[in-house]
Amino acid sequence: MRLYLLALNPTDSVTDGFLPAAARLGLDVTLLTDQPDAHRGRYAADVEILECDVRDFRAVISLISTHHASPDVVFTNSDHLQLQAALVAEYFGLPGKPWQAALRVKDKAQMRRHLAAAGLDAVWSAELPVGADPEVLTAVAADAPYPCVVKPREGVASEDVILVDGPEDLVLRCKEIQGRRPGAALVVEEYLAGELYTMETLGDGTVRHVLGGFHTQLSAPPYFIEERSAFVPAHPEPVVAQILAQLDALGIGFGICHTEFVVHEDRARIIEVNYRAIGDQSDQLLEQLLGIPLFELVLRTHLGEPLPAELDARRDGAARIHTPCADRAGTLTAAPGATDLEVDGVRLSYRPVRAVGERHELYHTNRDFLGVVRAIGADLASVDRVVADFLAAQTWEIAP
């Protein structure tokens, strides 16, 4: 059986999660990407890598049709390729995510419109199309409630997501983002107050499991960098019900999904829906903590296999993700290497994200991560103590 996996740049989720899971399931893998050189040499020798314009579903269909026998699985864990993978899977008659749902949640303006039309949540928002007249931006700035948030309509990972506090600031920030992203439409929407959480779900179209989630702490405004997250085994039932109702309205019920939301005065409001596994190694932590073959289960749903009624997931552990971030532009000249250790019953793993010798600008996004600390233990106090001790003993040096 052959899996066609669509990818842009390499990610930990694919390298350390989905590809090993595919091997355990006995799947032959063909990876389609527009960046083949970035992937070569990273995987097992039997992973076939082909260059393809994966952002164009027609190119993907054409390549698959002229390659091996008919595909058995078409899958991606990329935010940017969910619509394409859904369309390709539907074309070949394979299980997959509804393309309409993939479109709704990738397009943040469309998601807001859809939830409002369903009567579930009305968030003030305005769309700034590519090439819009300057008068459109001026009108949006005059009407927007402040503070508000500006972000790319189809962005990801806090890229160019900025809190603004007035009309002049909004106009300035929009022009800055448009200068960096001349082909990107923007969304301006009201700032949703509250504590930030995530909910991780896995479904087969009939059965849906809530895997828990994370409580996330962000950097100081005006940016939204995810600095620390603690595992939440179960959100309060009213919160779960509110989020699942919104996911149902969006058509999210198949495959794995990562939903970010805030809770304020008992009201749960979606920030965004990423129709993929949670990234930045949190998916690997989730698999380890819950004690389930998460990546295999995801692929099995795309093979058309039903999920078990019960996953027998563990809920008695505590876990923390901590991401040291660069605080300035420059070249990383010293940093710890990959580490695995156990202290007082806490299992800690550190994996570098940025290599020594690399030069980067300061992005004010998740691209500023220097590494990822994952820690699992019996209680959060012990986990946090071990993480704090580990970080205090490390050094990251950045030269101008």
| CATH topology description of one domain | Rossmann fold
Distance between the termini: 50 Å
Helix fraction, binned, reads 25-40%
Q: Compute the CA-based radius of gyration.
A: 21 Å
Low-confidence stretches: none
In the CATH classification, which architecture of one domain applies? Answer: 3-Layer(aba) Sandwich
Largest sheet: 9 strands, antiparallel
Assign the CATH superfamily of one domain.
NAD(P)-binding Rossmann-like Domain
Please tell me what the overall shape is: globular
Record field, number of beta strands: 20
Q: For the residues shown, what is the average pLDDT?
A: 95
Sheet-strand content, in percent, reads 25-35%
What structural category arises from helix and sheet content? Answer: alpha+beta
User: What is the CATH class designation of one domain?
Assistant: Alpha Beta
Strand order of the largest sheet: 13-12-9-10-11-14-19-17-16
Q: If helices are DSSP runs of H or I spanning 4 or more residues, what is the number of helices?
A: 12
In short:
The chain has 400 residues and is an alpha+beta fold. 31% of the residues lie in helices and 30% in strands.
What does this structure look like?
- The protein has a nine-stranded antiparallel β-sheet, with helices on both faces.
- The radius of gyration is 21 Å and the shape is globular.
- The relative contact order is 0.11.
- The model has no long low-confidence stretch (mean pLDDT 95).
- The longest helix is centred in the middle third of the chain and has 14 residues, at 167-180.
- Helix content is 31%, strand content 30%.
- The chain has 400 residues and is α+β, with helices and mostly antiparallel strands.
- Strand 9 and strand 10 form a beta hairpin.
- It starts with a strand and ends with a strand.
- The protein contains twelve helices and 20 strands.
- Among the domains are: 2-94, NAD(P)-binding Rossmann-like Domain (Rossmann fold, 3-Layer(aba) Sandwich), CATH 3.40.50; 124-190, ATP-grasp fold, A domain (Dna Ligase, domain 1, 2-Layer Sandwich).
